UniProtKB/TrEMBL annotation:
<feature type="domain" description="Zinc finger CGNR">
    <location>
        <begin position="140"/>
        <end position="182"/>
    </location>
</feature>
<dbReference type="Pfam" id="PF07336">
    <property type="entry name" value="ABATE"/>
</dbReference>
<protein>
    <submittedName>
        <fullName>CGNR zinc finger domain-containing protein</fullName>
    </submittedName>
</protein>
<dbReference type="Pfam" id="PF11706">
    <property type="entry name" value="zf-CGNR"/>
</dbReference>
<dbReference type="InterPro" id="IPR021005">
    <property type="entry name" value="Znf_CGNR"/>
</dbReference>
<dbReference type="InterPro" id="IPR023286">
    <property type="entry name" value="ABATE_dom_sf"/>
</dbReference>
<dbReference type="InterPro" id="IPR010852">
    <property type="entry name" value="ABATE"/>
</dbReference>
Length: 188
C-alpha cells in the first residue's frame, strides 16, 4: 500500500488485471484506481507509460473497465454480449493509435502516440479484452467462485479448472473459511 491507497492485484492477463482494479464488486467494493495518478501508476506496471491523466480520462477508463467486466462476464456464462459494453470496448479500441514494436531482446513493446497516450493505452487494453472474449487465446473465461467477488478471469491452467480469480486473495479466503467451519464443527 502506498500513500494509504489500495494496492494493485496484478495478474498475467492485461484485460482481466484491469477489471481487477475494482474488486469485491458483490461485497464491499474496493476501488484500486481511485485517482488519475493511480491509473498512471497501474499503466506503468504494464509498460504503458503515460505522463498524465485527467479526471475525465479516468472516468473513461473506468467505463471501459466495467464494459470489459460486463462483456467478459456474459462470455463466461454464455449469455449474449451487452450491446452497450461492446460499443464502449470498440470505441476505445478504434480511438487509439498504439503500435506494437519489437525490442532488441525480442519482446513486444507498445508505442503510444504523442497526441493522446492515455487513449492509446486504453486501446491496448480494449484490444486485449477483445482477443480474450473472442476466444482467440488459449484459455477459458470464468467467474471467480467467491460470492462477493465473481470477477471474470482468464483461466490458462492446463486442466481449465481454476475456481478463483486470484489464489492469494479469494482462494485463500475460501480455504480459511472452510478451515474455520470445520473447526467449529469439532467440539474438541
Ligand atoms: Zn475473486
Amino acid at each position: 500500500m502506498r500513500s494509504g491507497l489500495p494496492d494493485f492485484r496484478l495478474g498475467a492477463v492485461l484485460a482481466t488485471s484491469f477489471t481487477g482494479t475494482l474488486s469485491e464488486r458483490h461485497g464491499d467494493a474496493v476501488e484500486r484506481i481511485p485517482t488519475p495518478q493511480r491509473l498512471v501508476d497501474w499503466l506503468s506496471v504494464y509498460d504503458l507509460t503515460v505522463d498524465s491523466c485527467t479526471t475525465t480520462q479516468l472516468e473513461l477508463a473506468r467505463e471501459l473497465r466495467e464494459s470489459i467486466h460486463a462483456a467478459a462476464t456474459a462470455a463466461a456464462t454464455r449469455e449474449p454480449l451487452p450491446a452497450g459494453a461492446v460499443q464502449v470496448i470498440n470505441d476505445c479500441s478504434t480511438r487509439g493509435r498504439a503500435a506494437a514494436t519489437l525490442t532488441p531482446e525480442g519482446k513486444r513493446q507498445w508505442q503510444l502516440g504523442p497526441a493522446s497516450p492515455l487513449d492509446d493505452a486504453l486501446s491496448v487494453i480494449a484490444a486485449d479484452a477483445i482477443s480474450i472474449i473472442a476466444g482467440e487465446r488459449d484459455g477459458r473465461l470464468a467467474l471467480c467462485a467467491s460470492p462477493t467477488c465473481q470477477a471474470a478471469f482468464f483461466d490458462t491452467s492446463r486442466s481449465r479448472t481454476r475456481r478463483w480469480c486470484d489464489m492469494n486473495t479469494c482462494g485463500n479466503r475460501q480455504k480459511k473459511a472452510r478451515f474455520n467451519a470445520n473447526r467449529s464443527k469439532d467440539p474438541s
